[in-house]
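Supplementary Methods. Inverse-folding protocol.

Structures were first reduced to a discrete structure-token string of length 204. This string, shown here, constituted the complete conditioning input.
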């Protein structure tokens, strides 16, 4: 696992602190836009790996949701906030043992997780995802990215991220192309607070 583990990063991963930071950084609104643009139907089956406090449930109604995260505080928070018999939360690493218990999904959400994983971990998760995708399933990803001539503040913030595997476009695409035939990607540079996002929609 490639995550910085110090007092500061432990503090900012507290679900309450994390949510405030994400609001200030516009991460919350950015992810809300992605969800609203893609997930419009009801009763979809959605898998969210690295779900954190599962904030996407604020914008998705009537779905069957499975959230995985290794952070106990985030999972406890999500279980309390989104108590619903159609939502399941797991404080576990997403691995081979898990997929035998899962249905096939319409959407798999990988928001903010690829940059926490090394290449082997990404390949392993994507291989597992492919086994539980319905025919038209889409994988939605979102991560910080390093680009040329990046705003200095954006670059600084991204380099200090808890995830230690922030990549450039070539590196993210190299990983995804090993697994998916269709990859639509966007690089979005936000002005305030300066930050650069890499977001994709992948299909088998
Ligand atoms: C940047 S946060 C993103 C949280 C949430 N997806 C969001 O968009 O707000 C990354 C999350 O990935 C989780 N994580 C890191 N490695 C993981 C792994 N191997 N399996 C599951 N979750 C993981 C971390 O605990 C953290 O909550």
């Amino acid at each position: 696992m490639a995550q910085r583990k110090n007092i500061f990063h432990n503090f900012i991963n507290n679900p309450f602190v994390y949510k405030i930071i994400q609001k200030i950084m516009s991460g919350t609104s950015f992810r809300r836009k992605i969800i609203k643009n893609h997930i419009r139907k009801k009763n979809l089956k959605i898998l969210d790996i690295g779900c954190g406090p599962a904030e996407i449930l604020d914008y998705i109604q009537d779905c069957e949701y499975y959230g995985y995260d290794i952070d106990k505080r985030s999972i406890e928070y999500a279980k309390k906030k989104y108590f619903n018999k159609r939502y399941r939360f797991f404080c576990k690493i997403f691995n081979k043992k898990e997929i035998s218990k899962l249905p096939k999904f319409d959407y798999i959400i990988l928001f903010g997780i690829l940059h926490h994983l090394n290449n082997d971990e990404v390949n392993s998760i994507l291989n597992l995802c492919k086994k539980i995708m319905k025919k038209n399933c889409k994988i939605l990803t979102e991560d910080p990215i390093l680009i040329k001539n990046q705003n200095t503040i954006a670059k600084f913030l991204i380099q200090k991220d808890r995830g230690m595997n922030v990549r450039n476009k070539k590196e993210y695409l190299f990983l995804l192309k090993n697994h998916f035939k269709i990859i639509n990607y966007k690089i979005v540079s936000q002005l305030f607070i300066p930050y650069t996002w890499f977001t994709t929609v992948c299909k088998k």
